[in-house]
Design brief:
The structure holds two protein chains of two kinds. Helix content of chain A is about 25%, strand content about 30%. Chain A is an alpha/beta fold. Chain A starts with 5 loop residues before the first strand and ends in a 10-residue tail after the last strand. Helix content of chain B is about 30%, strand content about 20%. The chains are: A alpha/beta, B alpha/beta. The structure holds flavin-adenine dinucleotide (2 copies) and iron/sulfur cluster (3 copies).
Chain lengths: ~350, ~575
């Protein structure tokens, strides 16, 4: 039997899917498998907020349907979590005790909500909007609820705030200057954002911190350190995203904040690459490392990782510099843009 | 208890010359020195195997579960001498090894928090237990009263020798007193456990530095043996320009000053350099001295920090940033005061010899970070100016703890101290008086419920940020209450219970395999033997023609008892295994 490569991709987001497509374009014979712990095909994360508000249906959220994987001869394993990588034997261990062998591996496991250490003890009272699974768990509850407390306030957080407002909900937001991870908001920016938020029906709290969140008769009582107290139906945390990398620990792949890769998106282990928001990438022009968040970067990186895995030496270039409008404050970013549809 | 498996086990054991039988054998208790049994215990009980002092972890967790906190404390104390102290600050190698933390099993058991619980929750009238030997009239000098010195002194004293500790500083405890900050280790607890050691009749002479106040030669002449346990007290230097400016501290001196109640000037912005305990303690102390922007700066990735998860977490909670993959190249001053540190980016690189991964500076990647002070916490080496590291050929002089091994941790220092005590005893008496054996006892299956396996880890109670800052010595962690300890203790699988299938009775029906929650029961074709005589990893097969036996892999078994419940032949037995010390 001829030996065909088996390229395995962990992650079914933009990075993983663009890697898979590129691999298929360049290698017609290889076996290509995408593994995702979520139970839905590839979807637009940026549209999750519209989906919550019922502005779009589930079909409009999808980038791919199951048959599009089939058309490209890409195998998809949904609802299966990778638990461990053995890079010596090139084996992935899945949570349900199955093992998968790969000849080359691309890690595109994306990111998850950052829970501030100070908040972790209240973690079971907090809700997040980071994935389809998260959203399905809270969608109905959001529709019924009236009073909301948001703390943090990253880009998604402000998007969500506008959405709640349009749904006629009452919202309190406690803005953390470092919620916009990995960047910190300056006092000046904070003032401008507060000013700009005054057009919405929202209570803005700054320069304060949560002291207690507790659960009383189905309501949450949120108390800040300066003594402000709110009783709300739901508490949301928006403090940026951090790389999803726990499963790669102990695999021999260097890990820092994210999976450490060089400018070619290759890890220190020969047959393993990483891309998208799980990767921490060396950038030779600034001689430093960056973790990238944002859809366009994930797309480009997925493609570059696939090319390099096949023997190329493409250097990852950041997608053109963009200014993002955060409630009137222009934040320079090279990693985020308003996503409408897949290009 | 089932008799058929017992019989087969005993029959097997009787053929074995390495087993020692006691009168208790009739109660189905066997003491073994067979290397295979030691190998099996190591594989079966990963937490205990990872503990340098070989603490009987499942044993004491079971006692906590039964709310016998005094018993749990003594099980600890018999192995590690300072259970209360360790329950606060141990580096927890056991938790990294705990089976509950393996993929798909959840999170490690809070072994250390439970250790603390037995110290906190034992009765006020608790009695400590010591098995004292007759006096020998031999005299031993111990230099240094850190954990290694204290452990050596304790064991030597138990063995009947007269012990005097010489300590260069004013108070005993070594780094426990002068390194580790009070907000992690209350000093009254430390002193209580030290006094419990000194009560054996050990004389403590403080402010007596060897090499300064008294010479090693003098001690050698006056004592039958000498233990050097002087730790690592010489700070490593940064060796970069600007290191001698004002407001640049070395980590150990900084912590010493803080622990003596001084308030070193740190300013608002503090750069800590280093990746170990000292670095984190310095950073957390700086926050308590009023700094608002504190960073820990490390050369490698965060993965390589030599501290446990709780420490990482608490530092983050207190707002301390960790900046990885950088190293300082120069310190910039204005006049004699530091104003900035020049850093250089690093990248990870492979080496063929340990440590296998190193960090290499990247050329021309320098950048400046402004700061008010710098704390260099790069670790310590032994102070060779006072006591030479080269003790070879010095008859009757033994080394223990960090002095012997280089900077390590408290539990390793205690294990080292105990080991040196055994060696000294043999040297003084001319024979081994104690021996470690494996105690095997037939056991009923466990009364643990499968639901216990899904209990989440009980988090430690801590004080909030305001209280932390209101008084720098306020203890951050406040311990479990009785119910929390009981709940956390439920989580332990009790890996000291070994499940075994008797191949002579098994009918290969595979009912056990069908109910097993893990791949814990295997069809094997052979069991390789390692070069040290212990059993290796089972060789499995899918082909029934090659199956020689169905065997339980105790390295995967989570002791759920389900196999035992379904086996139609009653051929699965449970044996409680324990490492214990007996007289030879
Ligand atoms: C609500 C929201 C709104 C956003 N809006 C915008 C926007 O407007 N503009 C913009 O540019 N960016 C936006 N982003 C960010 C953008 O979605 C991400 O940067 C992008 O999705 C990253 O792509 P990725 O492929 O790296 O990872 P992800 O899209 O996060 O995909 C990771 C995949 O890995 C899987 N996975 C992870 N761990 C495992 C495991 N152990 N086993 C199996 N599978 C695993 C996950 O299930 C998932 O399929 C938004 C993000 C969110 C959450
Ligand atoms: C700031 C800090 C925090 C730490 N945190 C932890 C932690 O959380 N957990 C952990 O497990 N480990 C921790 N460690 C490491 C741990 O404290 C040491 O590994 C351990 O104390 C070593 O024990 P020892 O007995 O060998 O030496 P030491 O504890 O260093 O004791 C040596 C003793 O010898 C005395 N001495 C030295 N020279 C002479 C002389 N010439 N004459 C007489 N006496 C002398 C010293 O004064 C000292 O009392 C920490 C270390 C530091 C510095
Ligand atoms: S489950 Fe219990 S006995 Fe087993 S390794 Fe963990 S602490 Fe030790
Ligand atoms: S007790 Fe039996 S079924 Fe349960 S984990 Fe152990 S070997 Fe498997
Ligand atoms: S259930 Fe009992 S008889 Fe059946 S295979 Fe397992 S050990 Fe053997």
């Amino acid at each position: 039997m001829p030996f065909n490569d088996h390229y395995v991709i962990i992650g079914n987001g933009p990075a993983g899917n663009h890697a898979a497509r590129t691999l298929r374009k360049k290698d017609k014979d290889a076996k290509i498998t995408i593994i995702s712990d979520e139970r839905v095909p590839y979807y637009y994360k940026p549209k999750l907020t519209n989906f919550i508000a019922d502005e779009i249906a589930k079909e409009d959220l999808m980038v791919n349907f199951l048959n599009s994987y089939k058309a490209k001869d890409i195998r998809i394993r949904l609802g299966q979590e990778v638990e461990r990588i053995d890079s010596e034997s090139k084996t992935l261990f899945l949570q349900h005790m199955e093992k998968i062998n790969y000849s080359k591996l691309i890690i595109a496991s994306g990111s998850r909500a950052r829970v501030l250490p100070a908040m972790s003890r209240y973690a079971n009272h907090l809700k997040f909007v980071t994935s389809y699974t998260d959203v399905m768990a809270v969608k109905e509850e959001i529709r019924k609820a009236k009073d909301f407390f948001i703390f943090g306030g990253d880009l998604v957080g402000f998007k969500f705030l506008r959405l709640l407002n349009s749904m006629g909900k009452t919202v309190t937001i406690l803005i953390y200057p470092n919620a916009f991870w990995p960047y910190n908001l300056t006092d000046n920016m904070l003032a401008q954002i507060t000013e700009s938020l005054s057009k919405f029906k929202v209570d803005v709290i700054v320069k304060d911190d949560i002291s207690i969140i507790d659960d009383k008769n189905g309501l949450y009582r949120v108390k800040t350190q300066k003594g402000i107290e709110k009783n709300v139906d739901m508490v949301f945390s928006f403090n940026g995203l951090i790389p999803n990398i726990d499963f790669a620990k102990g695999s021999g792949v260097d890990i820092d904040h994210g999976i450490l890769v060089n400018e070619y998106l290759k890890t220190n282990v020969d047959s393993i690459y990483a891309c998208g928001s799980c990767a921490q990438i060396y950038n030779p022009s600034i001689k430093s490392y960056t973790t990238s968040i944002g859809w366009p970067n994930a797309v480009v990186q997925g493609e570059v990782a696939a090319f390099n895995l096949l023997g190329d030496h493409k250097i990852i270039e950041s997608v053109g510099r963009k200014y993002f409008d955060l409630e009137g404050v222009k934040i320079k970013t090279i990693w985020w843009e308003d996503i409408d549809d897949e290009v | 208890m089932k008799k058929n498996d017992l019989y087969s086990k005993e029959e097997k054991l009787f053929q074995d010359k390495n087993k020692i039988y006691s009168a208790q054998s009739v109660k189905q208790i066997v003491y073994s020195t067979d290397v295979r049994d030691f190998g099996q215990v190591a594989k079966s009980i990963p937490c205990q195997d990872a503990c340098p002092a070989k603490t009987n972890i499942p044993g004491y967790i079971r006692a906590v579960f039964e709310k016998r906190h005094g018993r749990a404390y003594e099980l600890n104390r018999s192995a590690n001498i300072l259970p209360g102290v360790l329950g606060h600050i141990c580096s927890r190698p056991c938790e990294s090894a705990c089976r509950h933390g393996e993929p798909d099993n959840g999170v490690s058991v809070g072994i250390c928090h439970l250790k603390r619980s037995c110290s906190d929750l034992k009765s006020g009238s608790h009695r400590i237990i010591e098995g004292l030997y007759a006096p020998t009239e031999k005299k031993v000098a111990v230099i240094g009263s850190g954990p290694a010195g204290l452990a050596a002194a304790h064991d030597l004293s138990i063995l009947g020798h007269k012990v005097v500790i010489f300590e260069g500083l004013e108070k005993p405890g070594g780094m426990l007193m002068y390194g580790i900050p009070e907000f992690r280790l209350p000093r009254d607890l430390l002193m209580l456990e030290i006094k419990n050691i000194l009560r054996l009749g050990i004389q403590l002479k403080t402010n007596k530095a060897i090499g300064v106040d008294i010479s090693l030669d003098l001690l050698k002449n006056e004592y039958d043996a000498v233990v050097v346990a002087t730790g690592c007290v010489s700070p490593r230097k940064l060796n970069i320009a600007g290191e001698d400016l004002k407001n640049i501290y070395n980590g150990l001196d900084f912590m010493k000053a803080v622990n003596e109640g001084q308030k070193p000037l740190v300013g608002d912005k503090v750069i800590v350099i280093g990746a170990g305990f000292t670095a984190v303690d310095c950073a957390r102390s700086a926050i308590r001295l009023g700094a608002s922007d504190v960073s820990i700066n490390i050369r490698k990735t965060i993965e390589y920090m030599r501290i446990d998860e709780t420490e990482k977490y608490e530092a983050q909670f207190e707002g301390i940033k960790t900046v990885s993959l950088i190293q300082p190249s120069k310190i910039i001053g204005n006049g004699n005061k530091v104003i900035a540190v020049e850093f250089q980016r690093t990248r990870m690189e492979k080496t063929d010899t340990p440590p296998y991964r190193v960090s290499i500076p990247i050329e021309n990647s320098q950048f400046l970070v402004p700061t008010d002070s710098v704390i260099a916490a790069l670790g310590q080496t032994p102070d060779e100016a006072v006591v030479s590291k080269d003790l070879d050929g010095l008859d009757g002089v033994f080394a223990a703890g960090d002095f012997a091994t280089g900077s390590s941790d408290v539990i390793s220092a205690i294990a080292g101290g105990r080991k040196s005590a055994r060696a000294i005893d043999e040297y003084l008496i001319g024979e081994k008086r104690k021996q470690t054996v494996v105690r095997l006892e037939n056991h009923e299956t466990t009364d643990r419920q499968r639901s216990y396996d899904f209990i989440g880890k009980v988090e430690m109670n801590t004080i909030d940020m305001e209280e932390r800052l209101s008084k720098a010595t306020n203890e951050v962690e406040t311990g479990y209450n009785d119910d929390q300890a009981h709940e956390e203790a439920k989580r332990c699988y009790l890996c000291n219970l070994e499940y075994e299938i008797d191949p002579l009775i098994c009918i290969y029906c595979s009912a056990c395999i069908d109910v097993a929650p893990k791949d814990c029961i295997k069809m094997i074709e052979s069991v390789p033997v390692n070069s040290d005589g212990t059993y290796g990893i089972y060789e499995e097969t899918d082909d029934w023609n090659n199956v020689v036996s169905i065997a339980i892999d105790n390295a995967r078994c989570i002791r759920c008892g389900q196999c035992l419940a379904v086996c139609p032949m009653d051929c699965i037995s449970v044996t409680k295994t324990e490492l214990i010390e007996i007289d030879t």
